[in-house]
């Protein structure tokens, strides 16, 4: 990641993190993104995460599984995750191939993703089972 263009960025916006993927990532880069983001949730005490994938025109099974895993890891660390910017062709291919985002919420764009996080932040916590 040193010396070359940034492949992804993680920015803080109040109690939330906004993670943008700027270009297609290979599997090792996706794992690095996952590690960096999960660490930032703790260090920034984030209550929510928006992952922007608008720059991606392909989302393979490893990438979609990694995004689901990030959502679960974030949940276990006390943050809600919203994935935004899934392109129409990517959504079509994901449905055709039987891939999904699991329990991770999706939204059209960053604005709607932040609104989703605000909704979750305003809701009372779900009872523990």
From TrEMBL:
This is RsbT antagonist protein RsbS. Pfam families: STAS. InterPro entries: Bact_StressResp_Reg (IPR051932), STAS_dom (IPR002645), STAS_dom_sf (IPR036513). PANTHER family: RSBT ANTAGONIST PROTEIN RSBS, RSBT ANTAGONIST PROTEIN RSBS-RELATED. Residues 17-117 form the STAS domain.
